[in-house]
Design goal:
The chain is α+β, with helices and mostly antiparallel strands and 108 residues long. The protein has two helices and five strands; from the N terminus they run αβββββα. The chain has helices at 18-33, 93-106, and strands at 38-42, 49-60, 65-71, 77-81, 85-90. Strand 1 and strand 2 form a beta hairpin. The protein starts with 17 loop residues before the first helix and ends with a helix. 12% of the residues are buried.
């Protein structure tokens, strides 16, 4: 996604221009295609979902809704409407390292 679209508030998707909506579509699809972990930041100061992998994106014409399907590091699969998401951030290396260490210790 280009720099001019990086700061878009995802929850305001329906209010965005066609170009901005297309940029969000491309961003979401590219996130699904990677093997990276993300943090999903929700609206209204709700607890975020950290260290998730985006599994798929559903675009529904009938309800004009976009659904984000993701999996947590505990293998829990969740689905959330795009309207509830403020932003999706790439996890930093420190968070990822801590999660890897946590998973390693779970098996001892």
């Amino acid at each position: 996604m280009s720099k001019e679209y990086n700061s878009l508030e995802i929850s305001k998707y329906s209010e965005l221009s066609s170009d901005e909506q297309n940029a969000i579509h491309k961003m979401l699809i590219s996130y699904v295609r990677t093997n990276d972990f993300y943090n999903i930041v929700l609206l209204h100061d709700s607890d975020p979902y950290d260290l998730v992998k985006l599994v798929s994106i559903s675009f529904e014409n009938q309800d004009a809704a976009i659904w984000v399907h993701f999996e947590t590091i505990t293998a829990e699969r969740l689905t959330m409407p795009l309207d509830f998401i403020s932003r999706i951030e790439l996890c930093n290396e420190k968070e990822l390292s801590n999660a890897t260490n946590l998973r390693r210790f779970e098996f001892f």
